[in-house]
Design brief:
Blueprint: E1 3-8, H1 36-39, E2 48-51, E3 54-57, E4 60-61, E5 65-68, H2 72-77, H3 81-94, E6 98-102, H4 115-131, E7 135-141, H5 154-171, E8 174-179, H6 193-200, E9 209-210, E10 228-230, H7 238-244, H8 246-255, E11 259-261, E12 266-267, E13 276-277, H9 280-292, E14 296-299, H10 312-325, E15 336-337, E16 348-349, E17 356-359, E18 364-370, E19 378-379, E20 384-393, E21 396-403
Parallel strand pairs: 1-17, 5-6, 5-14, 6-7, 7-8, 8-9, 10-11, 11-14, 12-13
Antiparallel strand pairs: 1-18, 2-3, 3-4, 15-17, 16-19, 18-21, 20-21
Length: 422
């Protein structure tokens, strides 16, 4: 199967906004440029805040490039800070800017972190992340249904969320996820919107907070926080999984909230059906697609669970993910449109079957083609010139193009010859 994805680039309006730290709302047109890297310099992180369907650092849109680091607080709590630093340094050097960390996982089998030990480790963890120019997505509740039954009641749930939220807000480089997969059998029946609403009331008002992922990747049930996280289904072939990410943009549009692809299929040294993949091109495509949809994305991997520097294939997958995210410049804010709407730039590969996803926002376009490589090129509708292929991996191609002044239909050669866009 081939899937074509086209999008147009938006040059965001540059605005000057006076912003207090941790403000809830920001300008409707925050800057989204390379300048946000300044905020990521070591020790110079600004608190993230909700600004419409984005998160902002200062007056600039924050481009989320997350990585799973579940066991990082456990390493700090156990006095293994050198190992924690090694993982954090690898994550920062690879190009990630958010660490997703569990604040507790008592009697977890592969990991055992009590809530008390987790809270004690958090201030040091947040400081270490800041030293490496990184934010932390801290998950307050995990494995609450463990065998001791100590962590199932609302008094504990409220206390844990309140204390983790307080530490997170104080750190200034942290956002909060209330619970990892609230619906999962390891949790104490947390997939209750009324309960999540009560728990959110324990959190400092200015802190960005997600409730946790819903059972369905298309559900709005758990999207009641100030941003939302989704665990996209891992079934099907890899290109079907990537195409399924379209639901993330739909959720963002329906809720008017920032959405993160929170725990997709993970990388491993060897594939495992429905759970792990080992093809770097799949993670490259995930990164590209997240930017086309204007959502956040987190890289998940087997060695990332205990916060151990990944093996060689996983590192290749991580680098490919970051490369994919960066295929679309940081100053581009895409807007997805219905491909059936008038004037939609629904580019497609010659002879391709499957669906097309489009977005418009200016006079430039990018196209992501998934599946068997085409030698025929990309056909753009009237008004767009075929540009050039800017990336090619097994089963994945990325093309750029530009709007034509006279609306002629053009076909781009696969070698990138002919009319080139910017």
């Amino acid at each position: 199967m081939r899937v074509a994805v086209a999008l147009l680039c938006l040059t965001c309006a540059a605005v000057t906004v006076a912003v207090a730290p941790l403000a809830i709302a920001c300008s409707p047109a925050p800057r989204a440029g390379y300048g946000h890297r300044t905020a990521l310099a070591r020790g110079a992180l600004e608190p993230l805040r909700v600004c419409g369907r984005a998160l902002c650092a200062g007056d600039e849109r924050f481009r989320w490039r997350g990585v799973t680091a579940f066991g990082l607080a456990d390493l700090v709590a156990d006095g293994r800070e050198a190992e924690a630093r090694t993982f954090t340094r690898w994550a920062a050097d690879t190009g990630f800017n958010v660490l997703r960390v569990l604040a507790m996982i008592p009697n977890g089998g592969w990991l055992d972190l009590s809530p008390t030990d987790g809270r004690r480790a958090l201030p040091r963890l947040f400081a270490m992340a800041r030293e490496h120019g990184m934010y932390v997505q801290i998950v307050a509740l995990a494995n609450t249904n463990e065998r001791s039954r100590r962590y199932r009641g609302q008094p504990f749930l409220r206390e844990q969320v309140r204390e983790v939220g307080r530490l997170c807000a104080r750190a200034g480089n942290c956002v909060l996820e209330l619970a990892n997969e609230p619906y999962h059998r390891t949790q104490a029946s947390l997939d209750d919107p009324a309960l999540m609403q009560r728990l959110q009331q324990e959190v400092p008002r200015e802190l960005p907070v997600a409730w946790g992922a819903a059972r369905s990747d298309e559900s709005q049930e758990m999207a009641g926080g100030t941003f939302a996280v989704v665990h996209v289904r891992r079934s099907g072939d890899r290109w079907t999984r990537i195409a399924r990410m379209r639901s993330l943009a739909a959720l963002s549009a329906a809720t008017s909230k920032f959405v993160v692809d929170n725990e997709p299929i993970g990388a491993a040294e060897a594939p495992e059906r429905g759970r792990r993949d080992s093809a770097p091109e799949a993670f490259f495509a995930q990164g590209v697609m997240s930017r086309l949809l204007d959502v956040g994305a987190t890289f998940h991997c087997e060695d990332c669970l205990p916060a151990r520097v990944p093996g060689p294939i996983q590192r290749q997958c991580a680098a490919a993910f970051v490369e994919g995210v960066r295929m679309v410049p940081d100053d581009v804010t895409p807007t997805i449109v219905d491909v059936a709407s008038a004037g939609a730039p629904a580019a497609a590969a010659d002879g391709a079957s499957g669906r097309a996803f489009s977005a418009t926002s200016g006079d430039r376009a990018w196209s992501l083609i998934l599946g068997k490589s085409t030698t025929g090129g990309v056909r753009w509708p009237s008004g767009w010139s075929g540009g050039k292929r800017v990336a090619q991996k097994p089963g994945v191609e990325v093309w750029t193009a530009a709007r034509l002044s006279h609306g002629a239909v053009r076909l781009s050669a696969a070698d990138g010859s002919g009319d080139h866009g910017p």
